[in-house]
Amino acid sequence: MELHMTDLSPFHITRKWPAQHPERLQLYSLPTPNGVKASIMLEEIGLPYEPHLVDFASDDQFSPEFLSLAPNNKIPAILDPDGPNGHPLALFESGAILIYLAEKTGKLLPQDAAARYETIQWLMWQMGGLGPMFGQLGFFHKFAGAEYEDKRPRDRYVAESARLLGVLDQRLQGRDWIMGEYSIADIAVLPWVRCLVDFYKAGDLVQFERFANVRRVLDAFLARPAVQRGLTIPARD
């Protein structure tokens, strides 16, 4: 029997996070660099949604309900009651979510095939390089790894993070955004740059002042009202 598009009861995740507005897209997330990709995107495109906080302090990400939607126990994840062909769609992985939302709304992903693939290229660059390398640097500089006496692991990630910033800085030379026009590539990359500098406090380590183009575009990104809203969603209690 076909489900009504607003009937989300078959999805186990709604038992822990009940949908007050089941007709809206459901977001399960936390304001981390990966998490805010989804909330910023949703704020930018103006698609109605209902956010739910996945609290790492309570190990929500390991709960059976969350794992039923996101088996890799990582945020963000979404449940769209109005998915392809009108059927609900559950989706995890921030990059996949960005592409899905862009294609669903026709926003922030070029329609031209060549530009579309180039945008996705930079999205994959963030997911495969920038995010993991910055995250490792954060571990060895700010978290438990900071206690390690051997600084070679930290220095390895410092060097690689600086190299990646150099790649990004060169790309932004003469451009307002990664693709010239604002896109999902910026939404993927720039929250991680912000995290490296503001949260991990690693700006001095990577000599961030050298990357003037990155600083310029990061400032423009953080000035966007949708970004400012998205950086705080879901709200922490």
Automatic annotation (TrEMBL):
Q: Which PROSITE patterns match?
A: GST_CTER, GST_NTER
What residue ranges are annotated as transmembrane? none
As for family, the record states:
Belongs to the GST superfamily.
The root-end lineage is: Bacteria, Pseudomonadati, Pseudomonadota, Gammaproteobacteria, Pseudomonadales
Which residues are in the GST C-terminal domain?
112-237
The name this protein goes by in its record = GST-like protein
Superkingdom of the source species: Bacteria
Domain (GST N-terminal): give its ranges. Answer: 22-109
The record's annotation in PANTHER family points to: DISULFIDE-BOND OXIDOREDUCTASE YFCG, GLUTATHIONE S-TRANSFERASE-RELATED
List, alphabetically, the InterPro entries matched: Glutathione-S-Trfase_C-like (IPR010987), Glutathione-S-Trfase_C_sf (IPR036282), Glutathione_S-Trfase (IPR040079), Glutathione_S-Trfase_N (IPR004045), GST_C (IPR004046), Thioredoxin-like_sf (IPR036249)
Which CDD domains does the UniProt record give? GST_C_Ure2p_like, GST_N_Ure2p_like
